DNA sequence: AGCATTCCTGACTAATTTAGTCAAGTATGA
DNA sequence: TCATACTTGACTAAATTAGTCAGGAATGCT
């Protein structure tokens, strides 16, 4: 149950973007340096984040990336999902309930994992980029 | 951010143990069959759970495994930690805060991941094997 | 026009982790 | 003594992670 670099880097980069961009777009290399992340890897991540509509790009000189929406409206849960680091606590889901303790149709542990996933999602969905920037984190 | 089979199987097996063992020890193969888990893999997991003191073994005929303590006192968080599936949301921790947004000493995202980890731990620590068996899961 | 800058894309890969299998024991009760 | 069941360690195939690298395309500045 660990958070990979993909999700971690994506959030770090977007927080940096929200924090240091004053209207102007920021270059990948600038962000990568400040956060000490591999630039070429970050480029990859930004590509998918752009396709998902979380950030916008400006090409050429003085170009770079900027948030597609207000920092207040971008939730951490969105970023993780967009980058392909979803919260997966359950494996038996939706259709069939096989591989479970077959006591009463639905498995005993399913509710446990589903509850955990919901808990995590709720937390990450309740926090925006702006919240992280301004250190409003309970 | 996904839960591996190791942690999942361990909890499933201990829930099964708590649910079906009536004082008597249960054989690994029995549990594995009922939960449709690979028996040889489960054996491995049970070995480490025993070393960590969560379960006890009885060898020979009519032998098997049983919970080392009351199901009410064994928390899910314990099982996951014992089996080697800890909750790792942060990477920069304890000693140095390198690799973070260096605005004020501690990084901006650190608090976020720490909060997530705490959230998860709190949830899993608040649930015992008995709770899962009796479907008391909020 | 030309050049530096920056995004953009896809292919590739080394290392680690996961999810097991397999074989050979050892202890115990019937 | 034999079947049952735990016990241990070595091994491995496949998937995932965490990147690198090379080349191309758009844009603004001089």
Describe this structure in words.
- The structure is a homodimer of 138-residue chains.
- Chain A has helices at residues 5-20, 28-35, 39-51, 76-83, 108-125, 129-133, and strands at 55-58, 64-67.
- The first copy, chain A, is mainly α and 138 residues long.
- The longest helix of chain A is centred in the C-terminal third of the chain and has 18 residues, at 108-125.
- Chain A is elongated.
- In chain A, 34% of the residues are buried.
- Chains A and B meet through helix 1 and helix 5 of A and helix 1 and helix 5 of B.
- Chain A binds a DNA duplex (30 and 30 nucleotides) through helix 3.
Largest β-sheet summary of chain A: 2 strands, antiparallel
Q: Catalogue the unreliable spans of chain A.
A: 94-99
Query: Largest inter-chain interface?
Result: A-B, 45 and 45 residues
How many H/I helical runs of chain A?
Answer: 6
Q: Beta fraction of the residues of chain A?
A: 5-15%
CATH topology of the domain at 5-86 and 128-133 in chain A: Arc Repressor Mutant, subunit A
Strand order of the largest sheet of chain A: 1-2
Q: In CATH's first tier, which class of the domain at 5-86 and 128-133 in chain A applies? A: Mainly Alpha
CATH superfamily of the domain at 5-86 and 128-133 in chain A: Winged helix-like DNA-binding domain superfamily/Winged helix DNA-binding domain
The share of residues in helices of chain A is: 40-55%
Q: Name the quaternary structure.
A: homodimer
If classified by CATH, what would the architecture of the domain at 5-86 and 128-133 in chain A be?
Answer: Orthogonal Bundle
Mean pLDDT of chain A: 91
Task: Provide the succession of SSEs of chain A.
Answer: HHHEEHHH
Alpha-beta content class of chain A: mainly alpha
Gyration radius of chain A, in Å:
18 Å
First-to-last CA distance of chain A = 23 Å
Number of strands of chain A: 2
Overall outline of chain A: elongated
